[in-house]
C-alpha cells in the first residue's frame, strides 16, 4: 500500500508518521488512529515484517479496545522495523532514537507490544517522560510481568461459559505463542482447573494430552529455552498447534494466523483471541457456521491496556486487576448478549458497541 489515505474511514486514522534516523538505523511507523476519547495508548511492536496496513489495523483495534473498555484514551500502534532479539545495547540505542523521534507527538503514549517490554518502556520514559507498562522500580505496574492480559483472557473465558462457552475446569486448552500473553493465560487457566494440552513458540510446539506442567514450562521458557525442548511432552512442528485436539484454542502470537486456508484444521469449540487480529474475517465466519464461539480480540485481550491506563492515571496493581476483571466481565456479557439478540457474530456486536462509544466521544470534539 503506497497511499495512507486508502486506509481512511469515518474513525481515522488521524495521523500516520514515518520515522527515520540515519545515525541509528531507526526505521518505523506510527499510526494514531483516533484520539476523540483522549491521548492514544497502544503498543510499540519491534518486528522486521509489519506492513503499514497491518499497523493501521492494529491501531484501529486499539481505538475499539480502549473505547470498549471505557478508557479516556484513543488508539494507536507503532512499529520499529528490527529484530527484537538483537543485542541489548543495540536495542536500547534504537528504542531511544524511536522515543526521541516521538518527543513532540503528545497525543501518543507508547506501551509495550511484541518485541518490546518494561525495560524498553523505561528507556522511552527516560527520553520523553511519556510511556506505560513501566517497571515497578520507577512506579509502574509491569503489565507483562504480572500477566495482565492473560488474567483478562481467563476472566473472559469464565464469563463466556453461560453464553455458549465452556466451564474451565477440565477444559483442554492449546496456546499459540508462549510469551507475555500466552504463558500467563496458561497459568491463570491452569489455576482454574484447565488442562494445557499444547503450547507453541516461534520454533516449535509441545503436546501433552494429560496436561503440561505449566509452572515448570514457564520457568523453562524464562530461562530462554524453546517450548519444544521441554522434557515433559512430545515435540512436534510449530504449526501443529493448529491441529491440537482441544476445547479452547488461544492465539497469542502474530496476526492472521487462522485464515480460510487452514481454518478447517481447528478442532476447538471456543477460540479466545489473545493476539491482536489473529483470525481473518472469513475464518471467523466459517467458525461461526461450525458453531465455534470466537471471543473477539479487542474485548478479551484488553487486560494489558486497562492495566496501562490505571498506571498512567496513578493507580496501583490491585486496582488494575479489579478493573480488568470488572470491565472484561461486563463487556463479554454485553457483547455475547447483543450477538445472541441480533443473531450476529460476536465480532459484529463488539464492533457496533465500540463504534457507538467512539462516535459519541467524537461528537464532543470541537472539530466535529
Ligand atoms: N502483551 C500484552 O499485554 C498484549 C499483547 N497482545 C497481543 O498478543 C500477541 C502476543 O503478544 P506478547 O505475548 O506480548 O508477545 P511476546 O513477544 O511476549 O510473545 C510472543 C510469543 O509468540 C511466539 N511466536 C512468534 N511467532 C510465532 C509463530 N509463528 N508461531 C507460534 N508462536 C510464535 C514467540 O515465540 P518465541 O518465544 O520463540 O519468541 C513468543 O512466545 C500479540 O499479537 C500482541 O499484540 C494483545 C494485548 C495485550
Ligand atoms: O499495554 C499497552 O499499553 C499496549 C496495549 C496494546 O498494544 C494492545 O493491547 O495490543
TrEMBL record:
Q: Which Pfam families match?
A: ELFV_dehydrog, ELFV_dehydrog_N
For the keyword Mitochondrion, the answer is no
A single Gene Ontology MF term assigned here is: oxidoreductase activity
Domain Glutamate/phenylalanine/leucine/valine/L-tryptophan dehydrogenase C-terminal, which positions? 140-366
Q: Which UniProt keywords apply?
A: Oxidoreductase
* UniProt catalytic activity: L-glutamate + NADP(+) + H2O = 2-oxoglutarate + NH4(+) + NADPH + H(+)
Which PANTHER family is this protein grouped with?
A: GLUTAMATE DEHYDROGENASE, GLUTAMATE DEHYDROGENASE 1, MITOCHONDRIAL
The entry sums up its family as follows: Belongs to the Glu/Leu/Phe/Val dehydrogenases family.
Name of this protein: Glutamate dehydrogenase
Species of origin reads Halomonas aquatica
